[in-house]
Specification:
mainly beta; 3 helices; seven-stranded antiparallel β-sheet; nine-stranded mixed β-sheet; globular
Length: about 425
């Protein structure tokens, strides 16, 4: 954990419906409208195909959609993609801004380049490669990226990284104790707490400031390793992503109505009791007076192996408080960036996953699945590589649980990623 000197702890479409039977489930395969888009491409999914070298090739043919099984499936070779790094125009100098050409927007980096010592003006939180030994190379399911996602939000699916690249961040937790988790066994007559989250890495688009406060959907990728308490080395893996629904905006607990957010007060006469609004769990919680921000995002109601999933993450040094009358107004506390309110602290404090039960349901059943979903976690067909509505979904030897959750709370669970030297402020908006 890094601590910086001087910081205190603190629109309409026709829906096409097909039905694919997957091991006891009937999945409607449907087209979903893209967020902020007039139309959505017709998309579909099927098992991944790889050559012996692991290069993805066209596997579209008259075969069933991927079928979840209750036995382990062989590990497929990873997808490999080439990303050419930029060439610096001048040599980097330690302690100085990294020169033009030295920044690759598809690659993870900290604030300070560990090889040259030059510094960038933003950072991407934890190093995702720290869990490559558990999940495999981070680029495997991300089309060669280690920062940014192939299913970015925006009209063309590229705007998020193009215009708000600095807000991507990884939250990585390794070797977590079983006490941080709660689970329910998948057996119909056995709902004991039998498993825990051992390792997890999540890439969020964490613009927890005016640049993102008014935006409901943000891209995400989540990988988690879940193990049995009785045998911490008996583990399974899940990987999934898409556009996470962060629900409604609240400022100091008060709902702020926005055009694209859920209609929290539908059928009610404001002001409605707060508890009625609380039925919507997903929310972006900001303040008009403080720099603490907490976002809760979820996937719910999707057609596929995941019934429900969500995360919560937060910062205690957002760039600014939020004006509920104009939540997109950029009013930085330090417009010259010469302070510590720069969104450089972060914490992944909650994760939850509810798989759909697969028959037979027994205490030691496992879930195995490889395929794709759309951006909202609905299973689709005919995908050949990751893209806006071709998001990888993987279960490998995963315990057949009703639910698994992780709570990572406490003041010491925040991490500081601003490694500027004392008296220096190298991070710039919109980190």
């Amino acid at each position: 954990m890094l601590h910086r000197a001087g910081r205190s702890g603190g629109r309409g479409v026709t829906i096409v419906m097909l039905v694919v039977s997957l091991a006891g489930w009937s999945y409607p395969i449907r087209n979903r409208p893209a967020e902020n888009s007039a139309s959505s491409p017709v998309v579909a999914v099927q098992p991944w195909g790889t050559t012996s070298e692991g290069i993805l090739h066209d596997t579209r043919r008259a075969t069933p959609a991927p079928v979840p099984t209750l036995t382990p499936t062989p590990t497929q070779a990873p997808m490999r993609f080439s990303t050419q790094s930029p060439i610096p125009t001048v040599q980097p100098v330690a302690g100085q801004p990294c020169p033009a050409g030295s920044h690759d927007p598809s690659k993870w980096h900290p604030l300070i380049d560990p090889v040259t010592g030059c510094h960038f003006n933003h950072e991407h939180k934890d190093n995702p490669h720290d869990l490559d030994d558990v999940f495999g190379p981070v680029e495997t399911h991300l089309r060669g990226y280690s920062v940014g996602l192939p299913w970015q939000t925006g009209l063309t699916g590229t705007e998020e990284n193009r215009y708000k690249h600095e807000s991507y961040g990884w939250l990585v937790l390794r070797n977590l104790p079983p006490s941080n988790s709660r689970s329910q066994n998948g057996a119909e007559k056995n709902s004991k707490d039998v498993a825990f989250v051992k390792n997890i890495r999540v890439q969020v688009h964490g613009d927890l400031h005016a640049g993102g406060a008014a935006t409901r959907f943000h891209s995400v990728w989540i990988e988690a390793q879940v193990c049995y308490r009785a045998n911490p080395n008996d583990c399974g893996i899940v990987g999934f992503g898409g556009h996470l629904d962060y629900g409604e905006l609240r400022v100091d607990g008060v709902w702020v109505p926005l055009p694209n957010d859920p209609r929290a007060y539908a059928g009610l006469t404001p002001p409605a009791p707060e508890r009625q609004v609380d039925n919507l769990i997903a929310k972006r919680s900001h303040s008009a007076t403080s720099h603490s921000v907490r976002w809760i995002g979820r996937f719910a109601g999707a057609v596929g192996p995941i019934a429900y999933a969500g995360i919560a993450h937060e910062t205690k040094d957002s760039w600014q408080p939020i004006d509920p009358a104009d939540p997109g107004a950029v009013q930085l506390t330090c417009p010259d960036f010469e302070c510590e309110d720069n969104n450089s602290t972060a914490r992944l404090d909650f994760f939850i996953l509810r798989p759909r039960q697969t028959p037979p349901v027994t205490a030691d059943s496992r879930i195995n699945f490889k395929g794709y979903t759309d951006r909202f976690l609905n299973v689709v067909e005919d995908c050949r590589e990751p893209g806006p509505d071709c998001v990888p979904l993987v279960f490998e030897n995963f315990p057949n649980l009703r639910e698994i959750s992780l709570q990572n709370g406490g003041p010491d669970s925040f991490r500081e990623y601003d490694t500027s030297p004392p008296g220096k402020h190298w991070i710039e908006y919109p980190n």
